[in-house]
Amino acid sequence: MIRQQLIRISRRWQTWIALLIGLAMIVIQAMTISKANTNFINSAYVHLTGFDYTGMGSRSYFVILPLLSALAAGSTNSEDKKQRFLSMQLSRETPQKYLADINLSAFIAGGLLGIIPLILEGCYYFSKYSLRPLPKHYELSPIASNGWGAGLFFSHPFLFWLLCLLIIFVFSGLFSLIATASAAFRIPYGMEIVIPFLISIASSLARDLTGFEGLSIPSIITPTFSNNYRSTFPSLFIYPALILLGVILVDRWRVHHDLL
Description:
Layout: H1 2-10, H2 13-32, H3 36-39, H4 56-73, H5 76-82, H6 85-90, H7 95-128, H8 150-155, H9 157-182, H10 194-210, H11 217-220, H12 223-226, H13 232-256
């Protein structure tokens, strides 16, 4: 069923809208980046979304990422209920198997939507600019020297970029899982897509109130911000663990109370 779900998700108009918005953010980044970063040094790593924070794309991409990730698969469970596909599916497999299939397909779809625009952007900049490591004391270096990934960035920046893509893939997939799990509650159709975004915004508000940068999800998944604060590194593990635990508990509650 996972393969069928992924094919179904790839054909939804919501998926293509999310992808187009993500690509638009990348274009906005390229158009609004500081000219100083292109004039002073030939390096791809001073352009990338999430690395160069002078462009509006970096400021926007990771804020709306929960919406984009949830848009593709977030409402599929609700649609299954409305179209009576769910009852047909449950006649052939257990509720646990159904939930596992839609969760895994939602995670993969959400993760891919989060990183495909960034990969395409990387292909462009990596073909146009140098991939050599930046000098450690370069004044426009996107990564702080005391950041959690500074050692890897200054020695093997391409590997650091791949690691950042992996982090973004995981969080994007988790945003999609939150949306899927939200269908367990009595909320208006389509509201599932907004729930991950609201959680992300709430985390940023908590950061503003407490001054603890590690609370902000947009900050911890943005390479530049994440490496400017020591408190962000543990959050890269704590948030995924909490989200996965929450999804598992919601799904167990659904099965136990026969809410599918």
